[in-house]
Amino acid sequence: MPAGISFETLHDIVQIVMGSENYHLFCFSVGDFGFMRDPMGYGDHDADTVIDPRLKYSNASFYYEYDFGDSWQHILQVEKHLSHSVDLPVCLDGRNACPPEDSGGPMLYAEFLHARKKRKGRVSRKWEHRIGTYWDANLFNKQMINTELKRYWQEQTT
Question: Is the pTM of this model over 0.90?
């Protein structure tokens, strides 16, 4: 990640990497503080807050929740602070597809994966309305993600 980005920008980047459609609420939690578009209470701050002063140390962990209904919760970790600047966000590695929007949260998604495995990759009628007729849980395309990240970054910096 480039230095000096806000939690809002990090949210947009995570949405691209995860393949989400970016239409649900989100919150980053760093210690006792939350960062979201519309702060809701004591300890909450606007997502336009710059990240760097909040995460000064390598190995610092913080939390990201997306879609408060499905409650997709993620732990993010700062692996290293670079001594040189980075021009744009880049996905270095990954595996498997992320769950589709509105797939019901972690427990329902696990149920879907189990049902899909039993049906040798086919999707049952029970899941068609929620996920569609086909979902490739093994799909991961780093090149496509990085193309989208580059496009997003160019729009943000021009």
Answer: no
